[in-house]
């Protein structure tokens, strides 16, 4: 905490007090809007109770420059207020573990409740000390109490979280611009504020509820910072309206409660929406890692066959290179035949590279990447990857590509994972049941105008009717070595592309049939 920052805080505190002190109360220094209180609380929460003397000093300076309050009243009043808020913040930081930036629903709720109590105690103390002022009248105590308490509470509830969120990253993000939707949100906010406060026909503020529309829109889509900024804009317009129209105290108090309701609703809704987005992101991240682990588990099952597939091109390369070398060592060298063998070597190298690349892509960890996917080609890759496993269990796999099946926009690796998972499940089902007929049919078709469908039908024992009810739940498996996540992951992939994964009604003894429907234009989400 440098001296320059202290000086900047004092200047900002006095400036905010000067801007907001626009509607006095019977000649007493009581304002209905106190954003400077929000700044003070934000600094206390960030720096701790050691900042309380700075807050008291800034408030005393503001009282002299803005409110013209006698020093004999100002000094004890502001020291007491800084001590109360400092003590409340100390309790929040040490006992309740509430810290900046107040971006989660529970800490924000605890903060609001604590500040409500602190503002209540501070207001009662201020009124007790204000009773020594010459213009004080006991008949004004109730109205004075409401104005001071709600004014402090609005300033703290709105501006403290906003100031806590303002940092270099926030300023840089604002400097880079924001989405067009955000422009629309703030434009609607300003329009609604002008309708509510700027027209004679709405002078009674019966349309105040219109302000909830842009605030809720921002809370759900824009995040806490944008929501708080929009509500601060509404507060500025409201302050201007109360000053320009010289509103009576009753109407100002009514506006205070309406604004407090808007602030609490908007900020808590924004925090809840952000917490939900974070939870969804965490779930998607875990699902992505689980999907990758499922791919690795699946690839382990077919690794032996892949090793055999790699052994063939490697041996061919060795033989071709050896033969070409011998041809070149002859007199005269047989260059033409040697070049032909080296060309065959290139072919085998590409074959080996294709096998390795396919396995690497299959097991890689990556973000959701939408690309043009040829479903028929993807299924051929899936059949080739599982061919060693199918050959080991003597299972015939038939691939049938339907007519007029278009390419789709999807994540190719994830679609390949779904196909490989369904194929390996079918192969294991046939192998473990020792079925006499050992065949799998993989088919692509046009499902409707907007989607395509792939079907995997096997000749295994079929699904158990009781198990079929839970087959897509995580960790449900019939295999001793199975993870029980393949179908759950596959369904999640299909659904996050905007499609679906389902099976036909169980027919024990007649095999199982699974269908995957994928849109031609996938939703751009990742699991």
Properties at a glance:
527 residues, alpha+beta, Arp2/3 complex 21 kDa subunit ARPC3, 4 domains, 5-stranded mixed beta sheet, two-stranded antiparallel ribbon, 17 helices, 7% strand
Number of domains: 4
Instruction: Enumerate the strands of the largest sheet in spatial order, edge to edge or round the barrel.
Output: 2-4-5-7-6
CATH topology of the largest domain: Arp2/3 complex 21 kDa subunit ARPC3
The largest β sheet comes out as: 5 strands, mixed
Proportion of beta-strand residues: 5-15%
Give structural notes.
The protein has 527 residues and is of the alpha+beta class. It has helices spanning 3-20, 35-47, 52-67, 71-94, 105-130, 141-165, 168-175, 180-198, 212-221, 224-244, 249-301, 303-329, 335-363, 375-392, 412-433, 465-468, 486-496, and strands at residues 371-373, 396-401, 408-410, 439-446, 451-458, 500-503, 513-519. The chain has a 5-stranded mixed beta sheet with strand order 2-4-5-7-6, with helices on one face. A two-stranded antiparallel ribbon has the order 1-3. A hairpin with a 4-residue loop joins β4 (439-446) and β5 (451-458). The longest helix is centred in the middle third of the chain and has 53 residues, at 249-301. It is elongated and about 115 Å long. The two termini are 43 Å apart.
């Amino acid at each position: 905490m440098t001296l320059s920052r202290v000086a900047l805080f004092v200047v900002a505190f006095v400036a905010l007090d000067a801007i907001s002190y626009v509607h006095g109360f019977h000649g007493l220094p009581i304002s209905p809007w106190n954003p400077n209180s929000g700044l003070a609380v934000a600094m206390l929460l960030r720096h701790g109770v050691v900042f309380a003397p700075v807050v008291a000093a800034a408030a005393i300076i503001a009282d002299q420059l803005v409110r013209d309050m006698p020093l004999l009243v100002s000094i004890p009043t502001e020291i007491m207020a800084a001590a109360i808020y400092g003590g409340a913040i100390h309790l929040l930081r040490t006992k309740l573990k509430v810290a900046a930036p107040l971006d989660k629903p529970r800490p924000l709720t605890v903060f609001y409740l604590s500040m409500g109590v602190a503002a209540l105690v501070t207001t009662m103390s201020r009124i007790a000390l204000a009773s020594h002022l010459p213009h004080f009248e006991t008949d004004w105590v109730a109205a004075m109490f409401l104005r001071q308490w709600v004014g402090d509470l609005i300033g703290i509830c709105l501006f403290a979280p906003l100031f806590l969120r303002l940092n270099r990253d926030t300023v840089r993000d604002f400097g880079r611009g924001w989405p067009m939707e955000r422009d629309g949100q703030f434009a609607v906010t300003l329009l609604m504020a002008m309708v509510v406060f700027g027209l004679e026909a709405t002078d009674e503020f019966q349309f105040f509820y219109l302000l909830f529309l842009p605030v809720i829109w921002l809370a759900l889509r824009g995040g806490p910072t944008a929501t708080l900024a929009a509500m601060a804009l509404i507060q500025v317009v409201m302050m201007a309206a109360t000053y320009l129209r010289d509103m009576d105290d009753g109407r100002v108090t009514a506006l205070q409660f309406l604004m407090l309701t808007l602030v609490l609703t908007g900020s808590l809704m924004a925090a809840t929406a952000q917490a939900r987005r974070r939870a969804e992101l965490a779930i998607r991240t875990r699902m992505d890692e689980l999907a990758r682990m499922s791919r690795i588990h699946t690839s382990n099952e077919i690794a032996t066959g892949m090793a055999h597939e790699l052994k063939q091109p490697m041996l061919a390369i060795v033989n071709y290179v050896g033969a070409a070398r011998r041809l070149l060592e002859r007199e005269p060298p047989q260059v033409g035949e040697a070049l032909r063998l080296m060309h065959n070597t290139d072919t085998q190298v590409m074959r080996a590279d294709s096998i390795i690349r396919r396995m690497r892509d299959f097991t890689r960890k990556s973000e959701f990447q939408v690309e043009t996917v040829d479903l028929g080609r993807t299924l051929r890759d899936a059949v080739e990857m599982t061919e060693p496993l199918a050959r080991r269990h003597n299972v015939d796999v038939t691939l049938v590509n339907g007519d007029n099946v278009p390419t789709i926009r999807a994540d190719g690796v994830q679609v390949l994972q779904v196909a490989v998972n369904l194929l390996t499940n079918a192969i294991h089902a046939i192998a473990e049941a020792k079925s006499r007929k050992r065949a799998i049919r993989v088919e692509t078709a046009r499902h409707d105008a907007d989607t395509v469908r792939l079907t995997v039908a096997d000749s295994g024992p079929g699904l158990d009717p009781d198990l079929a009810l839970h087959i897509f739940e995580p960790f449900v498996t019939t295999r001793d070595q199975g993870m029980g996540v393949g179908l759950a992951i596959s369904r999640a992939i299909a659904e996050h592309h905007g499609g679906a994964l389902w099976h036909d009604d169980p027919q024990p003894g007649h095999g199982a049939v699974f269908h995957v429907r994928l849109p031609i234009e996938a939703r751009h989400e990742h699991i």
